[in-house]
Amino acid sequence: MTNPTKARQKKPSPKKKPSPQTHVIKIVSSRKFTSLLQSDLITANSNKYSQAWDVSEMSRATFLVINHGRRNSAEVGLEISPGKGYWLNDGAPVITIPPQGHAVLVANYFLHYARVHYRSLIPNRPTRLSIWYQGQK
Fold first, then answer.
1. pLDDT tens by residue, 102-124
2. CA neighbor of 113 nearest in space, from 77, 75, 86
3. Residue 84 carries which DSSP code?
């Protein structure tokens, strides 16, 4: 007869270590992304301008200009400003975008604001543009 006070004690089973396949890895990024679109911009004989974008907190700012027109090219360039009152060319050449074409603009220099200037290549033949601004912090 067994002694009831001496109940059999089970040894605790060793805890299983999770296999490498069950580990969840979370990648946390502190980067900030901004994406803004200005569409249905119509060119003219003289320069017109996109809205001014604050690029001061971005480590990288890129502009994509799309020419939706089918008959006329557009000339575009990037301007920068320390405070919206004084604008200057960022040093890059003016780019001609053919019909149904696009161009990517990246500032050569840093100032607080940036905007795109645009006009028709052929006078009295407007075309329609969209401008994407995307920034990464």
1. 999 998 999 999 999 999 999 99
2. 86
3. S
Residue 123 has what pLDDT? 94
Q: Which two tokens stand for residue 13?
A: 């089973």
Residues 6+ apart with CB under 8 A from 64: 102, 103, 104, 105, 131, 132, 134
pLDDT-based confidence at 91, cuts 50/70/90?
Answer: confident
State the Cα–Cα distance between residues 69 and 20, nearest whole angstrom. 55
Handedness of CA 39, 135, 30, 57 (dihedral sign): negative
Domain ranges in the chain are 31-136
Question: How many residues are given for the chain?
Answer: 137
Q: What is the pTM of this model?
A: 0.76
Q: Of 106, 101, 75, 104, which is closest to residue 91 (Cα–Cα)?
A: 106
Assigned CATH topology for domain 31-136 = Jelly Rolls (2.60.120)
Distance CA 76, CA 47 (A): 9
Residue position matching structure tokens 């999770």: 18
